[in-house]
Amino acid sequence: MTIDGFLLKNFTDCCEGELSAVLSWRNAPEVRRNSFSCGEIDRESHFSYVKSLVQRKDRAYFLVSGPDGRPVGVISFTGIDGVSADVGYYKAGNRKNEKGVGALLLKLAEKAAYAVGGGKWKLLRTEVFSFNVPSVRSIERAGYKENAEKRRFFTRDGETVTVLCWELPLNAAG
Ligand SMILES: CC(C)(COP(=O)(O)OP(=O)(O)OC[C@H]1O[C@@H](n2cnc3c(N)ncnc32)[C@H](O)[C@@H]1OP(=O)(O)O)[C@@H](O)C(=O)NCCC(=O)NCCS
Questions:
Q1: pLDDT tens track for 34-85
Q2: Distances (CA, A) of 61 to 31, 90, 116
């Protein structure tokens, strides 16, 4: 699918080279530090996970590339229940020093949500650790509002962190 000149390629359609690149970005310390599962993902688990996605209706992952063909990052929809989904995102390794990539990925995810959800999704959610300032800023910039009632704690490797929950209503008509 192409949105505003950006190519969003479903992981299930990606070649081995593309999926290897995705794995290296996902395993970058910055991405792991900001993820619920922060362990390093091995090649075998990654490829078998992507294979399993063919059967799954509740999640979809996309490799995003720019109009110049350079990779931008990954966006994901998980917890798809027919009316809403959780958005995840991270930058491609070669974009490390670029600014504004988070808000761009979130804007593309919002537009993609209409296509992926068949125009039926009413809400997007995204969760972020409170210490992840660049992501919180990106989420705010993309127009999400925090649902403070859903603020919660999460314990990872013996450390308890605060999780902020953000929401973006979708226009039913797209
Ligand atoms: C989240 C992520 C995509 C953001 O990338 P980015 O948008 O290119 O990052 P930027 O450097 O432009 O920072 C985004 C915003 O945070 C601000 N920011 C960054 N670091 C900051 C800091 N330490 N203190 C205050 N503000 C900060 C930037 O100024 C920018 O604000 P602006 O939009 O008002 O200009 C990227 O950091 C990433 O991939 N992180 C790892 C994965 C991740 O955290 N995913 C989200 C999980 S919820």
A1: 999 999 999 999 999 999 999 999 999 999 999 999 999 999 999 999 999 9
A2: 16, 11, 11
pTM above 0.90, yes or no: yes
User: Which residues does a 6 A CB cutoff place in the pocket of ligand 1?
Assistant: 30-31, 34, 89-91, 98-103, 128, 132-135, 137-138, 141
Q: What is the 3-state secondary structure (H, E, C) of 61-130?
A: EEEEECCCCCEEEEEEEECCCCCEEEEEEEECHHHCCCCCHHHHHHHHHHHHHHHHCCCCCCEEEEEEEC
Set out the domains of the chain in order of their start, with CATH numbers: 2-169 (3.40.630.30)
Q: Which of 72, 99, 136 to mutate to test the pocket of ligand 1 (most atoms within 8 A of CB)?
A: 99
Pocket test for ligand 1, best of 26, 76, 137, 146 (most atoms within 8 A of CB): 137
Token pair of 33 as six digits: 């530090």
